[in-house]
Design brief:
- The chain folds into two domains: 213 residues, DHBP synthase, CATH 3.90.870.10; 138 residues, Rossmann fold, CATH 3.40.50.
- Helices cover 35% and strands 17% of the residues.
- The strands form two sheets. Strands 1-8-2-3-7-4-6-5-9-10-11 form an eleven-stranded mixed β-sheet, with helices on both faces. The chain has a four-stranded parallel β-sheet with strand order 13-14-12-15, sandwiched between helices.
- Helix 1 packs across helix 4.
- The N and C termini lie far apart (53 Å).
- The structure holds threonylcarbamoyladenylate and magnesium ion.
- The site of magnesium ion (MG) has 3 residues, from loops.
Amino acid sequence: MDTKICDITKWNKETLAVLDEAGAILRDGGLVAFPTETVYGLGANALNAEAVSSIYTAKGRPSDNPLIVHISDIAQCEMLALTWPESADKLAAAFWPGPLTIVLPKKEGVPTVTTGGLSTVAIRMPDHRAALELIKKAGCPIAAPSANLSGKPSPTKGAHVIADMSGRIPMILVGDDCKVGIESTVLDLTDETPLILRPGILTPEAIAEVLGTPVSFDPALYSGKEWNEDPSTEASANDEILEKEKKCPAPKAPGMKYKHYAPKAEMIVLKGSADAVQQALKKLKEEREATGQKVGILFFLAGDFAQAAHDFFAKLRAFDEDGVDLILAVAMDEADSMGFAIMNRMLKSASYKVMQIK
Ligand code: TXA
Ligand code: MG
């Protein structure tokens, strides 16, 4: 398939014409990759089961993994969600457009292929002018997972999408690099207590403040955390990790259970005091380089979580492009909610291979 690649970085007549064309492709059941403020999405008409199925094919993704439905107007929730609690109203007013996805019971008209067979639907209004205009022009809600091949790091630059999706879909819209850099916070509002199924840059503290009630994390999110408390200074073997994964509670967001974001390189996360980690890094790097391996170091300025989120996936892809064999990643502070969201991705990328430095 020929893929049309269109630059939409400027807001002008040409861009609006491209968005017209992209909207028509979506309306007719085709796929279009487009930028959002979090990561690039791979869109299809959310109410067209056949169109949505083709997303799974293009990504090579299991079809029990539900997609996020993107809207440009709150009124569109009416055709998607069976209920609209007051909490949803408050959150939409405070955070939409923005990196918050809300899970609610679905209306019958939403195809089960869109929701991965679940009776709930995940909805988000992206904070991106071109994305909003595209949804408007398509005239329907747009189901869109991240526009990467399944298992690869999420795309935060047009070049990432071009690398993964060329030849697989009819159109790629290339905008500026994604502002946020990691995917939206997914919040389940189907139970009494709002539950964060996937952490993001929008924190539970910010959500709780708007709701005036406490917000919890899906316990499955902590499973990785427990494993990291292994005092061993040896990086745990993948098999062991996968054994532990089986014993963890099943996550409520099915997407969280898959191996994700993996760079081609082996990746190890180093945890411990700054000094100890520094020393361990140096030693490991030297050891591996002595065997002829190319080693990359992934670290972010302590405390600058927004920048870390922004750069995270792009850095993983850059290591792969440089032919790095081993990525040594310095853990971020998980006690901070944004740090926790980044660590969620970092640990998955490393397949939970962690070295705890004493
Ligand atoms: O920032 C984002 O959310 C990006 C951009 C493109 O908007 N999209 C994205 O979609 O990350 P995706 O498909 O890669 O991730 C969707 C996540 C998965 O973890 C999935 O399991 C969860 O949302 N999810 C979707 N629908 C759900 C539902 N009905 N119940 C529980 N979890 C759901
Ligand atoms: Mg994804």
